Amino acid sequence: MEFDDTVAVGILHSLSGTMAISESTLSEVEKMAIGEINASGGVTVDGKTYEVTWIEEDGASDWPTFAEKAKKLIDQDQVPVVFGGWTSASRKAMLPVFEAKDAFLYYPIQYEGQECSRNIFYTGATPNQQAEPAVEFMFKESPVAGKPFFLVGSDYVFPRTSNTITKAQLASLGGQVVGEDYLPLGNTEVAPIIAKIKKALPDGGAIINTLNGDQNVAFFKQMQSAGLTPDNDYYVMSFSIAEVEIDTIGPEYLADHFAAWNFFQAIDTPASQKFTESFKAMYGEDRVTNDPMESAYNMVYLWKAGVEKANSFDDNLVREALIGVTFDAPQGPIEVMPNHHISQTVRIGQVTPDGQFAILSTSDGPISPQAWNQFEPSSKGYACDWSDPDKGEKYLL
Amino acid sequence: MTLFFESLFNGVAIGSVLLIAALGLAIVFGLMGVINLAHGELMMLGAYTTYVVQSIFKLPPLEPLFGAYIFVAVVVAFLVSGLVGLLLERSVIRRLYGRPLETLLATWGVSLILQQFVRTVPLAWSTGLWLAALLGLAGPPVVNRLWGPRQRPWLLRLGSWAVAMAVGVVSAAWIRGTLPKLARASARNVDVTAPRWLRGGLDLGDWTLPIPRLVIIGLTILAVLAVYWFLNRSLWGLRIRAVTQNRAMGDCLGIPTQAVDALTFAMGSGLAGVAGVAVSLLGSVGPNVGGDYIVGCFMVVVLGGVGSLWGAVVAAAGIGVLTDVIGAGRLLEIWPRMPAWLQGGVEFFATTSMARVLIFALIVVVLQVRPAGLFPQRGRMAET
Amino acid sequence: MANIRSRWPQLLLGVVGLALVVALPSLVSPFRLNLLGRYLSLAIVALGIDLIWGYTGLLSLGQGIFFALGGYGTAMHLQLNCHGCSRAPGGLPEFFGLYGVQQLPWFWEPFHSPWFTLLAIGLVPAAVAGLLGFLVFRNRIKGVYFSILTQAALLVFFNFFNGQQKLINGTNGLKTDLTRLLGLMVGSDTMQRYLFWLTVLLALLTWLLCRWLVRGRFGHALLAIRDDEARLRCLGYNPTPFKTMVFALAGALAGISGALYTVQSGIVSPQFMAAPFSIEMVIWVAVGGRGTLWGAMAGALVINMGKSLISEAWPQTWLFIQGGLFLLVVTTLQGGVVGWFQEGGPRRLLGRLGLRPRLSTYPALALETRQEGED
Known about the structure:
By secondary structure, chain A is α/β, with parallel strands linked by helices. Chain A is 37% helix and 23% strand. The model of chain A has no long low-confidence stretch (mean pLDDT 90).
């Protein structure tokens, strides 16, 4: 295919270190989306067609490295956009860089909210698009409905903040939280946490799990051997376990536990199947797709749509043009909202023995994102709107 | 009473993982004065070996025996890490005896290389490479032993390496073909699935004992007894102890000191491999798995007293019980009417992260009082 | 006269260096300048390690503690004086809002003051190092035990900072790019240029200080401790105060280095106290050449630059190269690269390749230096 010019975008995920297990899949799927875009004629700006290429850097699961590499992509390589990050800690490390240099980051992971940067565009779920429906499901409809909750997480910003929200939400629902504990990143000695859960939930209950990466392996293996299994009324709702993680942990440890996402590989629509098939064709038949990958895939397409609508690669024009852009994503239709987040469909799934999810419930159409949480007292009543200069990052509704 | 037993069991369970991981280090550090920072990576090799063995046991002819793969894995992991340790000793460590700080730096370099190695080389090829190295090295001595010394040793060596290479390439290609999961290099962690009997818990009334933990405790006891027997009751153990106490004298008495060094290091490394099998039952297997354990291992060895096997046992058990008592907040149960100011402090430390802080701080304090550990070596050895 | 004449190459080098430093910001991109500034600040911590390891024989694997303490002090001050940043309720730094903290923890209070902060950057790490050193050295813990103890101390600090979200933002660390210093945004190119010059100046001053120290009586005492501590004791010296002082000094240097590194990288996080980073610091000194101040600085600069450039081009290979470098230095180049040159390594290499080295001076003199180097 003939192109008039090329444009290089930045890709910044961890290709080494503890997060590489999850993050490297995002880099793969972003390259796949770029390949698809090029195959269908590239990006058209001002009547010229551009072939999209990429410059990739390794964040190495280390937050200062993310900040450094972001600087490199912005200053040295002058890329118009960076697709990057997984952990909230890495996003928080990059945020000041993007704001100081007025550049643009696309961040694909469901996260804790309570943030709405002018320079970040969030394509993952906010708490009201994942965590809140999940907690409500556990409290009202799950096999352990009405039983007490225990919160487990890795020790960093996402689990801490997400659990603060969950506690506020459960307080308003009338649920009971009997304990919470955090495992330092890089530590896999979960025995004390399991002992605490056993003590706090003698007759079973709901466990909200925000552990990250390989800590989940130790957690689920030892939960099972300690007898804290679904058969004994211990159900875990995980916010960071998707198909890729099931593949690494092993479905025999996860069967019958729950997860909430916007996309599952099991979604039975042509768009979803096409996404999974293209990925398998490119990276191997034994591979699986999941929600963060779908989100990363969408954001490349949304960027293309934004650029073409703005008819420019300039950050400030694309930023304005993006609001209101829609895309027929594998999960269903999505739309970019004025708060730099997107409206998404919420689904609850249960792990099946073959390593997939059985989808138990699907929201009626896409749900609007809330950057500022409405359960947590400090942010209640606030919202974010970048389409109106008077409102901006945080304004009172 | 239940509380006491539960705490004791959990403590012993945590401690046994530390101990089995530290056992090889105790030998290498305690007897040879080598600070092996690659010890964690030798454990990682053991864990990956478990994964490979498990994958092979999932193939049809062996599938009925899947429940037993773990026993095969223990032996193979010992051999894999032991052989790598042997090569490491012959190529690098040998040049650094008597300079412990240099061994520390060099083995750190080795650990980086090993980590990157498992990320970039597919497991199929690693397996072939290991088989080739094993056959190539073991060939000549075995042939000599069976059929007497050869006339032309170089021909024998050449022949055995040629055979070894061929076997290596063929087996790597076979694994690539039959187990596609092992054909690709990956920085991602792999899934070691325990067989069904190893996954559940053992119910004792209202009390569940996790079976993997029991197996690890059993494995640790076996390993400690085996090491004790080997060092104190066998001929080579006698030689090792003799060389440790007085190398020059041992040399004069005809002990092959170089072989003793190589054997000691290989054994310590092999034990790391066994520890790798144990940790694969608990958590995830990936390039970073060794890093999680290495510092804890050193703490066990130093706290117990370098060169003291029983010191390491006591230190590991102590650290384990303390981790459970502090980290799970059991102090509040033991002493419910604790004064408020103390209670605040106890709650502050009752998380896994803060328990670690407190325990490491305690170790630093204990070493203030007993600089050579709980069970210091006496005599001339202690001075060097 | 003779003195000046024999020194003219050094003078020339100094002038060229100065011109380069002044002109550099307009020659290279802000990103490369920023990297260079950061690596220069790492050269300061390397100098400290050289003092305690190269000259005194104490291998500390815990310099990250002091490095991070300096960084945290700076970042806390900047976070408190961040005009125009978004704030948590009560005017606290933003992250406190995420964990519902209403009141500033007590140890943050003094960091409102810039003067206190400036002092604390050096003195807090020095005090911690001094205390730790005193306790360890008093008990005559040395050699590998000292190394392992410093690593244990590193882990204590790492886990503490990593786990305390409500006090210090835990794993996430503290960011400085959007804060203001003297009215300028810290992350702006202008500020970063000033910080680069400040780093060059401080690195130079540190080098001069270390040179002055190691050439004096203090330096001789350090060498004596390294080479034969027992004999020093027998001669009536107590090595403990010397060791404590030099360890505290290295701590202070690490603190200054950490502060400079933090403002230039925009973030300080517990990762600075992760065990691998502290070991890496030792590598820089080992590769550059322990016991030579130039070697330590050059090692820090060159290895870090190599790391950036190589990991940009081939991300997979860096660990292989780093590990290999380590093995090479430890097994064959024990004096590091600078040490190798000083010991006449190039000439020996040429000799081994069968080339007769060309002598640029009287044979007698060459012989002399050679003997000096080789014994």
